Amino acid sequence: MGGREEILNINPCDVFKKYNVRPSYHRIRIYEYLKNRLNHPTVDEIYRDLSEEIPTISKTTIYNTLKLFVSKKIVREITIENNELRYDIITEPHAHFKCEICGRIFDLDLEIDVPKNLDGHEVQEYDIFLRGICKECLKREGSKE
Question: Cys bridge to 72: 19, 77, 86, 120, which one at CB 3.0-4.6 A?
């Protein structure tokens, strides 16, 4: 599990069954939120958006659910900058690009052959973060000239 196409087409309850996670309404909604947005949200963003729909949801529930999802490798925890944790439902290796103008974060397919053993170290996971200006912002900037 982990590829974009697979994630978009799978039922949350099937994911939970595969990873031995007991489904609950809040867990399903948090999983669906991540699946439907693919925007690498923070806990605060998830809480802000879901609390409008589910007034009984708490940040603690979101934190605990995401902690469970990370421990089961259903989602990845990523740090784009500083200490801001974000959550990514795409678990297969890929790169992230952050636009310095609009602040959006994009997934990028980047073919990099990272060896399992690097200078005697066992590589278990890697993250690649790129920064720059996204194509939409470049178009807007170009149209201002």
Answer: 19
